[in-house]
Amino acid sequence: MVKQKNMRGRRVTRKKRKLRKGVLITLIIIGLALISVVGYGSYLYVKANNAVSDSYEDDGREGSDLRDFEVDPNIDNVSVLIIGVDENEHRNNAETSRSDTLMLATFNRDEGSVKLVSIPRDSYVYVPEVGREEKITHAHAYGGPKATIETVENLMDIPVDYYVRVNFHAFVDVVDAIGGIDVDVPYEFKESDSMDKGDAIHLLPGEQSVDGEEALAFARTRKLDNDIERGKRQMEVVNAVADKAASLSSVFQFDDLIAAVGNNMNTNMTFNEMMTFIKYATGGLDIEDMTLEGSDYQPGSTYYWLLDEPALEETKRLLQDHLEISSSSAEESGETYEDSNSEEPTEERTYEEEGSYEEQGDPYQEEEPYQEEQPGETYKEEPYQEEQDPYQEEVPQEETDEYGNPL
């Protein structure tokens, strides 16, 4: 009996030791996993911080002129202007690129909601940088983000607190970094790729998964519809990217995502300011999409999107309410400009666009900005050839007397 009790005691002891060993091994594995996660998270945090810091640029403003205080995105409702420019390595047009995509987002902190307005690139608006009506896409070519921000503030009568500018390469790389996105292609089409090679992308209609180059073609094409439908597709892509990037399945792809954005982005946001926007994604993104309504207008060889004034006023009111600011902010701040749609365009005031599409006949007929060189031919790209170079300031002529001597 004594021997049996001793044997039972040893068995219990061994079981306890085995149990302790199992628990210990499990705790070690969990600990190592936590260390790995924390280490990887710290690595991503540092990398993201460096990427945003490298992308930071001063837009030459001390906050919006339509604000009488410095905003803090931790506590204030703010706005962000997303500028997608038609810049790539082939065009070599960093200094004269136009905004191919313009989206204004307003963020309401208490509601955790976002309103996203697509502004058609051909909208006929007042551009303060040059003091006349132009296509809104030209504002960036005249004065970069600052001129674009001023134009949008004048048009929408709300402050633009921050901006994010990305090029074609960022668009492609971000979609590829998250493993592609799902979109609904409305019709069959062929489109240029990010390096302007004509008809390099061929998509068929229907719901499908697309990579970066295909997503760019989907967002850019307007051969068979118009700029409004293109704007809707661009918002579809933005929503798809935001949803997938916020999902758990993309956590370990953040490394590539950070690299993609950091190499092709400029912003006036600091890293800490950018991190405050994570709150809007934690509870599921609540984004309301809108587009500026209007109508086709082509008085001559140049096509415009003429904004509908009552619809524009309603959109402005919705954004002002979302930011919880009063109307007529521009008037109250003393920053008033000529009304953006005060007069219709005339041929004397049009800007001859070298653009990505023909402005003769069908206003949406795309022009291939890049063509393969043929034997015996030399391809020569001559962007922005005009009677007067809009980017070069006029040099005053020195007055002389009748003998040619300076006065």
Automatic annotation (TrEMBL):
Q: A single GO BP annotation from the record?
A: cell wall organization
Q: Give residue ranges for domain Cell envelope-related transcriptional attenuator.
A: 98-246
Where are the residues of the annotated region Disordered?
325-407
Could you tell me the superkingdom of the organism this chain comes from? Answer: Bacteria
- Residue ranges annotated as compositionally biased, kind Acidic residues, are 332-375, 384-407
In Swiss-Prot or TrEMBL terms, this protein is called Putative transcriptional regulator YwtF
What family name appears in the similarity comment?
A: Belongs to the LytR/CpsA/Psr (LCP) family.
The cross-references to Gene3D superfamilies, in alphabetical order and at most eight, read: LCP protein
Keyword flag Transit peptide: no
Q: Which organism is it from?
A: Oceanobacillus oncorhynchi
TM annotation in the entry: 21-46
What UniProt keywords apply to this chain's record, in alphabetical order? Membrane, Signal-anchor, Transmembrane, Transmembrane helix
* InterPro entries cross-referenced by the UniProt entry: LytR/CpsA/Psr_CW_biosynth (IPR050922), LytR_CpsA_psr (IPR004474)
